[in-house]
UniProtKB/TrEMBL annotation:
Taxonomic lineage of the native organism: Eukaryota, Viridiplantae, Streptophyta, Embryophyta, Tracheophyta
GO terms of molecular function: abscisic acid binding; protein phosphatase inhibitor activity; signaling receptor activity
UniProt domain Bet v I/Major latex protein: residue ranges: 2-96
Organism name: Nicotiana attenuata
Domain of life: Eukaryota
Name under which the protein is recorded: Pathogenesis-related protein sth-2
Pfam family, one: Bet_v_1
Keywords: Pathogenesis-related protein, Plant defense
Length: 101
């Protein structure tokens, strides 16, 4: 997206398990890491739900530089931005079911 707050991101994929619907990847470069974070590792798992949809479970591991301690407020800010992205993708897929069928 041109003009957005993020200039670039570089990820490294560790696991893509189609059978168990699990993905593990790390953010290893990017301006969002700033001078306090070395990398961020994400574990994502999709599980079926009783209503016919799915539940996305994620965990995030922050790897800091030096002795910096990552604050909960910083995590919550990142979590809120991630939820915005997930909602945008969900809305797009619900409106366009043929793109994943």
């Amino acid at each position: 997206m041109t003009g957005g707050p993020i200039k670039y991101l570089k990820h490294k994929l560790h696991v893509i398990d189609d059978k168990n619907l699990v993905t593990k990847y790390s953010l290893i470069e990017g301006d969002v890491l700033g001078d306090k974070l070395e990398s961020i590792t994400y574990d994502v798992k999709f599980e079926t739900s009783a209503n016919g949809g799915c539940i996305c479970k994620t965990s995030t591991e922050y790897h800091t530089k030096g002795d910096y301690v990552f604050k909960e407020e910083e995590h919550n800010e990142g979590k809120d931005k991630a939820m915005e992205l997930f909602k945008a993708v969900e809305n797009y897929l619900l409106a366009n079911p043929t793109v994943y069928a």
